[in-house]
Automatic annotation (TrEMBL):
Signal peptide region: none
Source taxonomy: Eukaryota, Metazoa, Chordata, Craniata, Vertebrata
This protein's name: Biogenesis of lysosome-related organelles complex 1 subunit 1
Region (Disordered): 1-21
InterPro entries (alphabetical): BLOC1S1
Similarity comment: family membership: Belongs to the BLOC1S1 family.
């Protein structure tokens, strides 16, 4: 009888150990699955951030090139405007010179007419 109780007790302990071991394996599997799902979710975000960063880098390079081209074009425009301003000044100078000569010629003509 004592032997039978001991065997029953040992059998129940073995069942409990097997149940506990099975639950432990299930818990480990669930934790692993959860960890993999979380890592996969994070990797998607990281991958998207990486793609976005590459796009931004490309856009920055394009913008730098365009800014350089715009700067050169602006410098050309400034040079053209300065040349135009200089030409206008010269025209103004020639006009003033022509008026001065005209006034001198009129003065001379008037003096000659009076003589």
């Amino acid at each position: 009888m004592l032997s039978r109780l001991l065997k029953e007790h040992q059998a129940k302990q073995n069942e409990r150990k097997e149940l506990q071991e099975r639950r432990r394996r299930e818990a480990i599997a669930a934790a692993t699955s959860l960890t993999e799902a979380l890592v996969d979710h994070l990797n998607v975000g990281v991958a998207q951030a990486y793609v976005n960063q590459r796009k931004l880098d490309h856009e920055v390079k394009t913008l730098q090139v365009q800014a350089g081209q715009f700067s050169k074009q602006t410098a050309q425009w400034i040079s053209m405007v300065e040349g135009f301003n200089q030409a206008l000044k010269e025209i103004g100078d020639v006009e003033n010179w022509a008026r001065s000569i005209e006034m001198d010629m009129r003065t001379i003509a008037t003096a000659l007419e009076l003589c």
